[in-house]
Design brief:
- This protein has 91 residues and is an alpha/beta fold.
- It has a domain at 1-56 and 85-91: Rossmann fold (3-Layer(aba) Sandwich).
- It has 3 helices and 3 strands, in the order E-H-E-H-E-H.
- Helix 2 packs parallel to helix 3.
- The longest helix has 13 residues, at 12-24.
């Protein structure tokens, strides 16, 4: 089963790594964004099954702005949610 993925990641190397893994697994990247602003613009325009969000996006004045933007991206998107951080912990 192919999963359509929306990837929101501001580190280009991490984004490339995730895209490679998802491709090998047979999934489709339908959109990518590197900022909260891009994610907000794309989230309403795309049809996807899964979003991988970097919860530490910092394209605002500080890290908290990035997190608030991520929360706004999730508004109106009805899906089962799992969160983890880059150390394997729950967020």
């Amino acid at each position: 089963m192919t999963i359509r993925v929306f990837l929101v990641e501001d580190d280009p190397l991490v984004a490339m790594m995730l895209e490679g893994y998802l491709d090998v697994l047979g999934h489709e990247i339908v959109a990518t964004a590197a900022t909260v602003a891009e994610a907000l613009e794309l989230v309403a325009k795309r049809d996807f099954d899964l979003t991988i969000l970097d919860v530490h996006l910092a394209d605002g004045k500080n890290e908290r702005d990035g997190r608030c933007g991520v929360e706004r991206c999730r508004e109106g998107v009805h899906s089962d949610e799992r969160r983890c951080d880059d150390h394997g912990g729950r967020v």
